[in-house]
Amino acid sequence: MITTALQPATVPPEILGHIFTFLVPGTALIIPSSDLETLFRVIRTCSTWRTIALQHPHLWSDLDIRLHSWSDWETISAVRMCLKFSASTNQLRLLSIWLYIKKYINNWTSFTGFHAPMFLIPHSHRIRKLSILSPLSLTLLVLPRLVDLEVLTPGLETHPDMHIPALLERSRAKITHLTVSSILDWNALLSYASHIEVLVTEGALAATVMRDIAKGTLGVALREVKCAVAFHDCDTFLDMLEARASMTREVDFLIGVSVITKVDARCVNFSLDARQLLRVHGLAPKIHVTITEGSVT
What we know:
- This protein has nine helices and ten strands.
- It is elongated, with a radius of gyration of 24 Å.
- By secondary structure, it is an alpha/beta fold.
- The chain has two domains: 1-62 and 70-93, no CATH class; 63-69 and 94-291.
- The longest helix is centred in the first third of the chain and has 16 residues, at 73-88.
- InterPro entries: F-box-like_dom_sf, F-box_dom.
């Protein structure tokens, strides 16, 4: 990859920057760890290459970690090297971690000891943004500099979201943006985050969230709710609309893609009825609805 024929003194800095950008992809850590090891060895021994590396901190501080499984040692090794290098600089490099494990675990309750990757633990004090899109326990993490937390694990009977209040209590972090797919106790989050976004993927939960907003039980921290809900019957959908209409406080509530799989006569004209219902209450969120059975889309 890097040979003695490539002398930094004879190559313009912008070219070296392009080389470094190519060798350390910021969107997905798919580069062989052996190549990264060679690159970082050169960086440690050559001040010119080190200067170039320090000019591109986003490449090794904003990590998009996509593990196929826990045995994906090639990727894990590359991640470890990026974390070690970012920690070796004189400046404090805060980390943005986007973590996804392809081998999705459907039965979360069988994996109560399935913790976040151990290689993150030594660097947890530097993490400012963490996105977890796999069922991982958060009980081992302490994140004092965390400002943005996203935990999205839809489709699980028991969500790791339950660990969020304890995590925020341990970390004493000042969260400015929190995104969750469900939560057992909404009020437990309100004192920790100034902006809470909920991604709802289940119709009944969507109606529950709206009623809680209408009652004021969610406080003022909840600013945005996004729905990507598959409604399996018309009753659930209409229940959600009625709950939404009862809201009196302005909250951005976007119903992204709602699907009704069982349509009856009440749903034939629901598109007009829904908009009219919300318009009467002065609420007009964007509604995009697709019906898989029926004549209205």
